[in-house]
Amino acid sequence: MSKTHMNIDIGIKEGDRKKIAEGLSRLLADSYTLYLKTHNFHWNVTGPQFQTLHVMFEGQYTELSAAVDLIAERIRSLGMPAPGTYKEFSKLTSIEEPDGVPSATEMIQQLVEGQEAVVRTARSIFPVVEKAGDEASADLLTQRMQLHEKTAWMLRSLLE
Q1: 43-86 tens-digit pLDDT
Q2: What is the mean pLDDT of each run of 10 residues along the chain (160 residues)?
């Protein structure tokens, strides 16, 4: 069975699709790293806020789990391969992994920083997305930024 390569003609030049996919790959890496960090903290949180944080972190990592699928599928829709290994994610992410098990307060602080990092990464992709007229990627980025900004605010509120 021969493999045929079909040209992609969605109104976005190949070079632009490649640049957008590179940016979305960084977003995917940040989102997956934040997912992993949030899941880790869900498992390991202790202290008087245990119940509240355990449930909150579960909601956050569940949402991130769905988000990584959407981001990866957008990359594939642009005709590019999506990164999918720890090795690739560790090269692409801007989010640091924790050493050991931080206190509940430190967990919240690290997750605020992680949520904000995802927003910055999403925002950094906008110029190439807008220049290319890629409304679908712009819509995805806008939704991700709104969600992560709101989640960062909610987490920050626990620290005040």
Answers
A1: 999 999 999 999 999 999 999 999 999 999 999 999 999 999 99
A2: 69 93 98 98 95 96 97 97 96 95 97 98 96 97 98 95
Q: With contact defined as beta carbons under 8 Å apart, do 78 and 17 qualify?
A: yes
In a domain, 127, yes or no: yes
3-state secondary structure the chain: CCCCCCCCCCCCCHHHHHHHHHHHHHHHHHHHHHHHHHHHHHHHCCCCCHHHHHHHHHHHHHHHHHHHHHHHHHHHHCCCCCCCCHHHHHHHCCCCCCCCCCCHHHHHHHHHHHHHHHHHHHHHHHHHHHHHCCHHHHHHHHHHHHHHHHHHHHHHHHHC
Total number of domains constituting the chain: 1
The pLDDT value recorded for residue 45 is: 97
Q: Residue 66 belongs to what domain range?
A: 14-159
CATH code for the domain of 151: 1.20.1260.10
Q: How crowded is residue 150: how many other Cβ atoms within 10 Å of its Cβ?
A: 11
Please check whether residue 71 is in contact with residue 27, taking contact to mean a CB–CB distance below 8 angstroms: yes
